[in-house]
Structure formats: structure tokens, C-alpha cells
Amino acid sequence: MYPCVTSPPKKPCLYVKPPRKDGESWNIDDCSIATCRDGDIIVKPRECPPVARLVCENKFPPVKVYDEDGCSFLCEMYKCLCYGWGDPHYVTFDGKYYGFQGNCTYWLVKEIIPKYNFNVMIHNYYCGHGLSCPESITIIYKGLTIYIIQTQNNGITVNNKAILSPAYKTTDFRITTVGIKTVVTIPKINAKITFAGLIFSIKLPYNKFSGNTEGQCGTCDNNQKNDCRLPGGKIDPSCPNMAHEWHVNHTHCEPPVMPTPGPSPTPCNTSICDVIKSSVFTECHKLIPYDPFILGCEFDVCNMHDDHVGCTSIEMYADACADAGLCVDWRSSTHGLCDYTCPSPKVYKACGPPVEVTCDTRYSNTLKYYSIHQSTPDPMEGCFCPNGTILLSSNSKECVPTCGENNDDCTHHCFDILLFLSFQGYEYHVVPTQCCGRCVQKKCIVSVPPNITHVLEVSLEPAPISDAIAGSHVRG
Fold first, then answer.
1. The pTM of the whole model exceeds 0.90
2. Where in the sequence is the domain holding 445, given as residue range(s)?
3. Residue 116 buriedness (CB in 10 A; 0-12 / 13-18 / 19+)
4. How many domains, the chain?
5. Neighbour count for residue 351 (Cβ, 10 Å)
6. 10-23 in b/e burial notation, b at 16+ Cβ within 10 A?
7. What is the C-alpha separation between 66 and 69, in angstroms, rounded?
8. pLDDT tens sequence across 317-337
9. Same domain for 202 and 306?
10. What is the pLDDT of residues 188-230, one digit of tens each?
């Protein structure tokens, strides 16, 4: 008699919400089906029946979309993609290019008839030579407010709470950053918003937002004639004039002063802009029209008298290419002018993942699910650990050659931390051998009349308190 040989049981997929059994399948977006196979998730696209090829007003290739129920094929349609860069230049959802020099807070996108409770605002500021630049983006969705300001340390807040992790997710949205760009995705409405200081983009599905957007990004309906829509529905012949009318009501905004024609300007060197037309972008030229980016690049270089500002137009064009699924390693073609230096030990990669994997297995598995939730995650440039190393944890800047044997021994998952902005003076510290770190008080925040705030370092030794703050109270 031969002994019985049994196969080990198949693993379920426990890191998805809700957890899935081995062999279980489910829809993850309009175009993809996921199946749990022995602890791994396999994603396959749905098959589309043949349809007539559509021509898109914004010159982008059409994409396959589905009915609201996600089961019936609709047809091939184009995506609503609005983007802006530089000081600043705008391309509407339907591909209309214009420049606008306002320095207030404006509505980029509003729903004409509220359906998903989704809106986006932008704040511009004067950045020199009478020109304005984007400073921050505010996303409003289902009562939540996501505020992103691009600084050296990337400020991201959700409902006035600061996010301390490079990746954060809730049931409604995902936020990721790899050092250069911050990306907010809203899976339920397939929205994607990218912000990187001088550049931004908003990508919306046509089948959900067709004919129902207004603001500086225009109306997404494959028709450029109504892109300069004013509040109230009238169409302005000038998009720059229209753009000013979308200032947020509670901000005081003066119309931007249009420059008066002067003497013929001194010819300027715009050779940096030729990178957009060069062979490095040959494959992208087949997908994305580059004329608006050339116009914006030449305007910036000639008006700001700085070749480096041309990098912004090239970066925006590369982002549009990446959004179409084509990653381009372009910075090396600028002869050092547009190089990006990452803080040590991170290194720059042009085509990295949207979220960096870490030694925290549960964190990485969660992000793996985030990546497959987009059937074809867009590549992102950013700062990553060098090849052959891996990031120790989401809250660490250390790159290690191996993770060790106990990285999966945690009995619970360490969720991303939200820190109230008013609760200052605390820092997150990694605790060796433990799954999660902890918040450690490093400073005391003391306020005294009239509305003066003092920041005091925490010390183990008693220190005299000056008369100036003797009667103060501690906020943090």
C-alpha cells in the first residue's frame, strides 16, 4: 500500500478588501477581471467586440469603455484629459490650448449637474516677470477635501489632516508619491489627478463625465467650440477671459493685466524645446500631439529668460506620454539642464512603479493590490532605492539589501497615520524589531498673546521659562 500524498491547501488572497478565496473572480474596473490564484491575483482584460474607430477632438487615441454596470460594452471613446504647466499653459479636455496669467484660486473642474460630488480647484501665484505659476491643487469628493501643495517635502492633507506616508488609501481614494509627483486616484469614478508643482493633469472617464464638466478645463464632450464656457453656460470667444471668471467666490481676484505690445524682443534661444520634437519622443509623437507643448516651452523660455523653465514643458509632454502607457527616459537628452537629483540613497528612475515596494510585506501587498486595481498602472518617474536594494519601510529612508526573515511576522497591519495639523511637535519614529513605529514628542508648541507661537525643543533637563511665556499654554 502506498502512502497518501496530499497537496498543500491553496492560499486565499487576504490582503484585498474584502479578502478573496482561491479561485474567486471579481471585477476590479470597467475593463478587467481579477482572479485569486493560490495567494496571487491574476488580472485579465475583458474582450471588446469590433467597433468603428472614433476620431477624438483632442487628438488622443480613443480608449475602450463600458456601460455603467461594467458588463456591457459601449464603444471606443476618448478620455477626458486636461493638463496645465509652466506659467501657466492650459489644454482643455477637448484639446484646446490657451495661456492664462491669473494669480487667484480658480475652479479647474466643476460638475454642471452634480452627480459624483467631484470638483477640483487650483491656486496660482505670481512667480516673476508678471507671470503666474500653479502652487496648489484642492480636490473635493463626496465631502472630503484633499489639498496638495508642492514643496520640497510635498504637503498633502485630507480634511485638514496631514498624511505622513508615501502611499495612503481609503475606501474612496488613493494617494501616492515617489518624490517628484503626487497622484490621487478615485477608483469609483475612475478619476486620476496628478500634481508636481508647475504641472498638473486631470483624467476623467468620458462615459461618466461627458457633457457635464465646466471650469478652466472646459466641457468634456469632444467639441472644442464650447470649451470657453462661462459660469451660467454662455460661451466666451476667449478662453483666457473665461478662465478669470472661474475664480472661487470667496477670493478677491483682479483680472490679469494683458501685456501691451512693446518693441520687437531680442531673439531668444529655444533649443531646449527641440527635445520635444526629437527622436527620444518618436513613439509618443504617434499618440500625443506636441504643438501645444512647443508653444508653451518657447513662451516660457523667452519670457522668463531661463532655459531651465523649458524643462517643465518637456516634463508635461513626457507625463502625457506616460498617461498613454508610453514611458520616455528624456532627461538625459537635455545635457544636464533638466537633471533631477534625488536625496541619498535614492536614485532617479524615469520609469518606476507608481508605489515603491518595502520590506513591510502587508504594506507592499496592499500596494500591489492598488497597482493591479489599475489594469495597466502608468509608469512614474521618481526617486527609488538603487537596484539590488529595497526600502525598509514606508516611513523609512533606508535602502537595505535584504529584508531579513521576520518581516512577515507582524500580527497586525500598520496603517498610514493621519496627524492633525494643530497637533504639532511630534515625529514618527521607526521602532526596531516592531511592526509599527510610534509618534514621539520632539517639540512643544507654546502660544502667548497677541497670537505669538513659540516652538520649544523637548529636553530632559529643566530649563528656565522666560517671563514672556510664563502665562502661556501648550497646544501640542
1. no
2. 426-474
3. middle
4. 3
5. 13
6. eebbebbeeebeee
7. 8
8. 999 898 888 899 999 999 999
9. yes
10. 998 999 998 789 999 998 889 999 999 999 999 888 899 999 9
